[in-house]
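dumping the sequnces here before i forget
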Amino acid sequence: MAAVKPNTNWAEDDIEADELPQPTETTDPNTGITTITSWKLDEQDRKVKVTRRIRRRVQTQVVSHSVAERKGWAKFGLDKGKASGPDRKTTIIGENLHFRIAPVSKAEPEQADPVASKPTGGKAVVCRLCQGGHFTAKCPYKEQLAVIDNMNTEGMDEEEDAGAQGGLAPKGASGPGGKYVPPGQRAGGGAGESMFRSRDDLPTLRITSLSVDAEEDDVRELFEKFGRIARVSVVRDRETRQSKGLAFVSFEEKKHAEEAIKKMNGRGYDSLILNVAWSQPRGERA
Amino acid sequence: MKPIILQGHERSLTQIVFNFEGDLLFSASKDSVVNAWFTSNGERLGTFGGIKGDGGHNGTVWTVAVDSQTRFLITGAADNTMKLWEISTGKCLFTWDFLTAVKRVAWNEEDDTILSITEQRSGQPSIIRIYKINRDEPTQQTTTPITTMTLSGSKATVALWTPLSEYILTGHESGKVAKYDVKSGEEVNYIDDAHSGEITDIQGSPDGTYFITSSKDKTARIFDSETLEEMKVFPTETPLNSACIAPLRPYIILGGGQDAMSVTTTSQRAGKFESRFWHKLFEEEVGRVKGHFGPINTLAVHPQGKAYASGAEDGFVRVHWFDESYFRSRPFGDLEPEVEV
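..and the predicted 3d for all of it:
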């Protein structure tokens, strides 16, 4: 280095020693994967090498001239001179939200009525599928539940119990008299929720021998009849994005997850027999 | 649906707007800076203000409006000024001074006229002013309004131009909805008890023939722009801060939550800080999108109905691009027409 610049004084030399190597970017022509290597200093002024492997996929979109022109505008204000592309300081991509347009059940006010929800004598009509106050044939969940119910090989009593607890009726069932009680006001509860719930405290199921064609939404559809689902993830190959036939489903309630294991383990799905079991946290795995 | 979270503000959002093509989003907040964002990837194009001495606002920016050609931006703030900006460079072109804060601004359809509403405070009445904008020499603007409407009754909080820009529609603190002639400044029609609480937002339908209002009285209502006849009511459980009508699909989006002062005493789930989707015709709720940690202050929908954005008290803007399932959705099955995608 000194040979190239013979006139450098000692101060500049010092700066050069601390200088970080230039970031490199190489693209593998066979796989199309770009490897970006950059260097940075951490809090203790140590050099850290950051390697990112990404695949760039060009998405072509037809836009009007004015939109295309605006894409080329230089940044201004506080962002003046910054490189193009989203800045991680101001832009983050949120976690995938499940959003589906469907009528929101208005069953709540009816269930709050103490007379209607009171279990009356033997003559009362109780749906065998969802324990609602209507004939089984008119059950709104008939199609979803009948299939699963037929698979149930265990005693009827246990099933009824699980059904009532299992959140198969969309609202209610959480407090006395079928009335919805907010989690904070439930007996034994009282603790407030935290802003970021850790992944590990959610009851998570591991689904193996899943069809490789099953997407997140398919898995969600398969399991959401047991209760509210917090997260679904299908494990994919890092490079090809092809499913590995393995998925994780996190329920919000443990009993819903138990119910799902009982009903879904061994069930056929897309010509394969599902294997559903509790997911072991990383540390406990053999 | 993966939301893009934009964190360019230090304080709560006051208003967000998409431009005509929907490729840019402008957000105004209480921290006196206005941000411009690319909606496709969440990249920030720049800030209007934020650097000392560049002519930015010096107080809460209450309102922002963009013209249909995305050339000029109008902002109104609590420092008693209204500013005209060049969007491509972020330069402030002109400043109007008032005696009180500017609460709402809007462009008319021809992009040559704006309206501004000033706050009623310290003996000053709430005034709606209409200004001509000189588009050829944007730094030379007149400070004399072409029409001035001094409101004697309840102050106006929000306003909107009707199609063809002959009238403006206003929402008032008392819950009144009124229609004013732009040329004469006369009140041509009004409904005193349109809402029973303060009207917090007013947004038009894609063709402008009807509009939606949201109110602190926990309802949103759709009115006919011509007759001010009430067409639909959407009752919710929380005070509403914003409402908008989605083009393309028959839904409206509502946002709200309890008052900012009571936020810290309630949990996130009880706070109902969700954007709520309602079916416009059947007046039934059809979906919710959660994510904010505070009440939603402002909502805006992509002009082609492909996305929507929400800005909240927590200082974040979330841009949501709709999934394929949204465009095919028919929540009421056979009651609704087939969807062509």
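Residues 123-152 of chain A form one domain.
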